[in-house]
Design goal:
Layout (H helix, E strand, L loop, with lengths): L2 H20 L27 H4 L10 H4 L8 E2 L1 H7 L1 H8 L13 E2 L8 H4 L2 H4 L3 E9 L5 E7 L5 H4 L8 H10 L12 E2 L5 E2 L11 H6 L27 H4 L9 H8 L32 H24 L3 E3 L7 E3 L23 H15 L3 H4 L1 H14 L20 H4 L7 E2 L1 H7 L3 H8 L5 E2 L6 H4 L14 E2 L5 E2 L16 H6 L6 H7 L22 H6 L19 H4 L4 H4 L9 H8 L25 H21 L6 E2 L7 E2 L11 H15 L3 H19 L11
Helix pairs in contact: 4-5, 13-14, 13-16, 14-16, 18-19, 27-28, 27-29, 28-29
Length: 721
């Protein structure tokens, strides 16, 4: 109670007492005068997580991120910076202060830039935030920018608001377009703005700690992505550790290294231990070409960074005509080094001279170099994306990348069509493809017998094959259903005759193709063998149907012509060999040294079965079985083209272009007969399993010869196994 209020109360009570006495009222006791309650004692212990937050970077109120504007006139954090450098600005951007969302309406006094306080993230708007637009964008049909938006990130969405960077591939390209650059190797001259002032072509800085841009990769295009190349999307970690707050304490900001140790070993808890982490799929790849395939991904990236900076310096001197150097702590970072002494040149006032003789090509590479450095946790957030950016930048500058590695093994190659095909479908792999083209599809199929649509991924995760509930055991599979309806297995019976699960059956789940003799016959039922039918559509077995090839007629993955007999499983299987006997399960490379034990050579295409049979009729009985198959493939294609000409029109095959077979008009081939479709199916089958010559060569030779014969081709010079 204030002094003024207290005096009013006392005065009222005295007046009442006087009136009572004057009226002869009964004697009463003196009134009790209330006293003011003591002020509450403030304690930070009453604030949840205060002690965790107080020493964090978000509360480094004396640091540059919050004191940068103290000396400005006026001393205020501008609207372009306040969103992430003040609590008031963050709330303003969200609209938590009642203003319009997604913009900062007013600058914040520098004195009020007191870190990122509780109310920045703990308010009704921030607590329900689930969608954030990034600086990257694409243009719609009208030429308008459409920003990349990230959704469904949960509570950690609050982190994405600031840790996304301020530039992107789109903004770099926009600057290049503004200066109307046609020669990417020409030094760009200034242009005039609307007021007639000179505007220089300068460096674009992504800004600091753009962890979300690294994490989401090509989904937000924070790095400069070169046309024609494919890049990794969001880096997926194990469930529960795939968001900012899954790996970082949201208040201290520290990494939960003790929990990392569960999978990565106790070594990660040591100083710098996280930098030593190397993902299993990276075990054989020497990304930076230094000969060390055991160093952590941090050091692989560091090696590529050094190579890129060296290439930037060479290009700047030789192509742009002026030497360049880099200082991560001195704006504008890339500085002029005209005399080539490695130190930045200075002006008359002693200040460093920013680099100014930019070319468009140099800008792209320098931008990516900065992207890789300004997220110090990039080696964990999205290391493969950073590797790709650095590799491509070196290559674009004309550097030698022959000793570097850009792409991972197929199962982990997130920058390939097999995993990026659905990026235009909101990064969602449909149910019909998710089993083999997503990280979680196969596990769900094994458990449920079916699979629903899944988020697109950068290849497989450990949990794709390893049962997390029984870590590190693989999922137990005894038999695998194939498209023909057959149940196929590598499993052997135990003493009681019960099949024992075999890890290689996991490979069969996907490497089986999607079509078979059964589905081809179903599609061509009741059709005349050599009559064109406009309703016929080509059936594609799909890629790498190695499992079907291995088991031959047991799986009927290829088209088997009626009245013919075909070989079953390859002899390797009978002798106990499986997919994992011949291939490294993570790197996927063939164990060629093991092949040499029996075959006397590590040159797989030189291997024969040991017989002198001239299957392809070319007179060469010493060539490898791969050569025998190649000749028959050529013969089948020629026969198909000849047959097509006589049954409706020219036919051309393009292995990398769907639907693979094309007519003279460049459109998908449309004048199929049943026999032509069967032959085309087998031709595609033989090509889409590039290891078919090793998986079951004689089976492949059988169906190639039979396909030639079905089209009326001469097979008298061939020998059918």
């Amino acid at each position: 109670m204030t002094t003024k209020k207290l005096l009013i109360v006392l005065g009222t009570l005295l007046l009442a007492a006087t009136l009572l006495a004057a009226c002869g009222g009964e004697k009463t006791e003196a009134p009790v005068v209330p006293t003011e309650e003591p002020a509450p004692t403030f304690s930070t212990d009453s604030i949840p997580y205060y002690n965790a937050w107080v020493n964090s970077g978000h509360n480094d109120v004396a640091g540059e991120p919050f004191r940068h504007w103290d000396g400005d006139d006026p001393a205020e954090v501008p609207t372009s910076c306040a969103r992430c450098h003040s609590t008031a600005g963050y709330q303003d951007f969200l609209g938590a202060d009642g203003s319009e969302a997604n913009k900062v309406d007013a600058a914040v006094p520098a004195a009020d830039a007191q870190g990122i306080q509780c109310m920045a993230c703990h308010n009704p708007v921030a607590s329900t935030l689930d969608s954030v637009a990034f600086p990257g964008f694409e243009t719609d049909e009208a030429g308008e920018p459409v920003p990349f938006v990230v959704e469904g990130f949960g509570d950690a969405t609050r982190c994405l608001v600031c840790h996304q960077g301020r530039e992107s591939k789109a903004s770099v390209d926009a600057q290049i377009a503004r200066f109307q650059i046609t020669d990417v190797d020409a030094v760009v001259a200034p242009i005039k703005d609307d007021q007639g002032n000179d505007v220089r072509f300068g460096f674009r800085n992504i800004h600091y700690f753009a962890a979300a841009a690294t994490l989401y990769g090509t989904q937000v295009k924070g790095g400069y992505e070169y046309e024609g190349n494919i890049y990794d999307a969001r880096h997926m970690h194990v469930e529960g550790y795939d968001t900012c707050i899954g790996c970082h304490d949201p208040h201290t900001l520290e990494v939960k290294v003790e929990q990392c140790a569960t999978c990565h070993g106790e070594g990660v808890t040591a100083e710098g231990g996280l930098k030593d982490i190397r993902e299993p799929e990276a075990s054989a790849w020497d990304y930076d070409g230094d000969g060390d395939v055991e160093e952590g991904m941090y050091y692989e990236i560091e090696g590529l960074q050094a190579a890129l900076l060296a290439e930037i310096k060479t290009y700047a001197k030789d192509k742009a005509g002026t030497g360049i150097t880099y200082d991560p702590a001195t704006y504008p970072y890339f500085l002029t080094d005209a005399d080539g002494d490695g130190a930045a040149d200075t002006n008359a006032e002693g200040g460093v001279v920013g680099y100014s003789t930019w070319t468009a090509r140099l800008l792209k590479a320098a931008y990516n170099y900065q992207v890789s450095l300004k997220d110090p946790g990039a080696f964990a957030h999205g290391n493969k994306y950073i590797v790709q950016l650095l590799y491509d930048s070196i290559k674009d500058l004309g550097g030698d990348v022959s000793k570097f590695v850009r792409d991972d093994a197929g199962h982990f190659a997130g920058n390939t069509e097999a995993f990026r095909h659905w990026d235009g479908d909101e990064y969602t792999v449909p149910a019909g493809c998710a089993k083999c083209h997503s990280a979680g599809g196969m596990a769900e199929f094994i458990k449920e017998g079916a699979v629903v649509s899944k988020p697109a991924s950068n290849g497989f995760l450990c949990s794709t094959c390893h049962d997390e509930a029984n870590w590190p055991e693989r999922y137990a599979v005894t038999t695998v259903p194939f498209p023909s309806g057959a149940s196929i297995t590598f499993s052997k019976p135990d003493a009681d005759g019960k099949l024992v699960p075999d890890d290689a059956n996991l490979c069969l789940e996907c490497h089986q193709g999607r079509e078979s003799t059964t589905s081809v016959n179903r599609a061509l039922a009741n059709k005349e063998p050599d009559t064109v039918d406009a309703k016929i559509r080509f059936l594609n077995v799909h890629y790498f149907a190695a499992g079907a090839t291995l088991f031959g007629t047991d799986a009927k993955g290829a088209y088997e012509f009626e009245g013919k007999t075909y070989l079953g499983k390859h002899g390797h299987i009978e002798n106990g060999f499986t997919c994992k006997s011949c291939h490294d399960v993570h790197e996927l490379e063939v164990k060629t040294e093991a092949c040499a034990t029996c075959h006397g050579t590590e040159d797989l295409e030189a291997i024969r079965y040991g017989d002198p049979v001239d299957y392809d009729g070319d007179g060469d009985t010493a060539e490898g079985i791969a050569g025998e198959i190649a000749t028959l493939q050529e013969a089948l294609y020629a026969t198909m083209q000849s047959y097509a000409e006589s049954h409706g029109g020219a036919l051309e095959y393009k292995a990398a272009s769907y639907p693979y077979f094309f007519g003279a008009d460049g459109k998908g081939y449309a004048t199929w007969t049943p026999n032509l479709m069967k032959a085309a199916y087998n031709y595609q089958y033989s090509l889409k399993d590039p290891g078919a010559f090793a998986h079951n060569a004689k089976y492949v030779i059988q169906f190639l010869i039979d396909s030639i014969e079905a089209l009326g081709g001469d097979v008298t010079t061939y020998t059918r196994p």
